[in-house]
Amino acid sequence: MEKKLRVGVLGATGMVGQRFISLLENHPWYEVVTVAASPRSAGKTYEEAVGGRWKMTTPMPEAVKKLVVMNVNEVEKVAASVDFVFSAVDMTKEEIKAIEEAYAKTETPVVSNNSAHRWTPDVPMVVPEINPEHFKVIEFQKKRLGTKRGFVAVKPNCSIQSYAPVLTAWKEFEPYEVVATTYQAISGAGKTFKDWPEMEGNIIPYIGGEEEKSEQEPLRIWGEIKDGVIVKASEPKITCQCIRVPVLNGHTAAVFVKFRKKPTKEELIDRLVKFSGLPQELKLPSAPEQFIQYLEEDNRPQVSLDVDYENGMGISVGRIREDSIYDYKFVGLSHNTVRGAAGGAVLCAELLTAQGYIQAK
């Protein structure tokens, strides 16, 4: 790319906003030129606005420290400074829907980490290796919004990343019933142990709204476009429990699967390691070279050893074995704020750019 695209980050001071900022440092295609947040942060430099709340393990990039934070509600003003935006705003669902569409209507594409638009019928919710064809629904969305280049695209919930790609790789064997329990890191709640000391040595067996997302969002990803909207798939049926565990980064899933065409263990592993998609084909900057790795050791995947596989953009799977009630069971692991949040959104933006949906204004 001759000239980098100008990027804005909405909700730049929060944890996912910070992850966007850190992932976009030295990005070959994009340059963060605008950071926007709530009115209370507006007018301060990014460094002042974040203060002691920088939650990444890497230092704050020098290039953003002196950027003056803009008021996220001043939509026209923010939009005028950028080619597109990433959204990680912390508002109510209705407020998020409204503000993301307001940005889209300024002819500014919005790639969102938020859940507000995940079930808007003409908004694509995409894992780039799984359902890139859903971006085609953008043309219908533009007609609704009355835009030429503005639209909203979203990525799905962090909790499904450790098993939905796995089930996709096994599609030919027709998985039809799935039981999943996810063990979710505290960064998924935007926290560190410093913010949430009561999570040390603790487990909380409830994460609001998470179980429904974990059961339903994979079906939307596996759905198809009909009459200008995305219609979710009817199978596999998924039931899920979501548990918060004392881990900083990394969502682990323990999953049981029934298949209509029962495969061998060797076939399952073969399909996982060979599974790739458009991001790998196009060699997108953030794409993992090997999307899914299979680990043979009985005690893997482990958060401490495997969460950063492929810079946090890959999925680690282990312990595939036959089950006495279901056909097979396995354990999956993904990085919840990289692949599951900001990194997944950056990869979506790269694919949208490669396909011409995102261009310089």
From TrEMBL:
Entry-linked SMART domains: Semialdhyde_dh (SM00859)
EC identifiers of the protein: 1.2.1.11
Domain of life (superkingdom): Bacteria
UniProt xrefs under Pfam families: Semialdhyde_dh, Semialdhyde_dhC
Keyword Zinc-finger: no
Semialdehyde dehydrogenase NAD-binding domain ranges (all copies): 6-138
InterPro entries membership: ASADH-related, Asp_semi-ald_DH_pep-lack, NAD(P)-bd_dom_sf, Semialdehyde_DH_NAD-bd, Semialdhyde_DH_dimer_dom
Keyword set includes Transmembrane: no
Keywords, comma-separated and alphabetical: NADP, Oxidoreductase
An annotated Gene Ontology molecular function: aspartate-semialdehyde dehydrogenase activity
Residue ranges that the Swiss-Prot or TrEMBL entry lists as coiled coil: none
Family, as annotated: Belongs to the aspartate-semialdehyde dehydrogenase family.
Protein name: Aspartate-semialdehyde dehydrogenase
Natural source organism: Ventrimonas faecis
